[in-house]
Amino acid sequence: MADRSGGRAVIGVILAGGRSSRMGEDKALLRIDGRTLLERTHAILLEAGMERVVISGEAHGGIADRWPMKGPIGGIASVAGELADGELLVVPVDMPRLDAVTLAPLRDERRMRATRWAGHPLPMRLTLDTTSRATLAELIGLEGRECSVSALQARIGVATLSLDRVDSQALANCNTPDDWREANA
Predict the structure, then answer these.
(1) For 127-170, what is each residue's pLDDT tens digit?
(2) Helix, strand or coil for residue 9?
């Protein structure tokens, strides 16, 4: 099945397995415009042409996080263990202003194994293949910044898109109650 861009189909991945410790409550269940962030993110991924959407995070009916203390890399690696090779569009659940227009250039840019917006490691398009799987497996064994989305991108190669093509407010994530208030002001 092809996505709306005419290329290989893309699977949307929502990272929703975090502890939300700085927020003090589950970020996926925060409500905006009458929907939870999880519901909103799911709808945006479908609007952006995803073939299907999977959730990283067992608490939300998704794929259990095999490495719960490894942050986004743990979630991505857990999802990768359940999916066939292909294209993924990985989105954190805590971006309340994200939209399909912001995701489309990431979905369509395929020069490298990963694509991101300048200064924003997530959301990203990721080619799931032997190389990215092996790199994820290596990163799981590391700590701190060495086990990060930026480290993954540096190792497998990343195309970085200029922010002049996007409203940077769409890329703001909410990790604290102050971030949430600011995003919804």
Answers:
(1) 999 999 999 999 999 999 999 999 999 999 999 999 998 888 88
(2) coil
pLDDT digit string, tens, across residues 24-64: 567 777 888 889 999 999 999 999 999 899 999 888 889 99
The helix/strand/coil state of 37 is helix
Radius of gyration of the chain from its Cα atoms, rounded to whole angstroms: 15
Distance CA 90, CA 164 (A): 21
CB-CB contact of 114 with 156 (8 Å):
yes
Residue 87: its H or E element: strand 86-92
Q: Which residue has the tokens 């942050």?
A: 71
Longest pairwise C-alpha distance within the chain: 44
- Domains of the chain and any CATH numbers: 10-180 (3.90.550.10)
CB hemisphere CA count around 26 (13 angstroms): 12
Which pTM does this prediction carry?
A: 0.90
Q: What angle do CA 27, 33, 35 make, to 5 degrees?
A: 55
pLDDT of residue 86: 95
d(CA 137, CA 10): 22
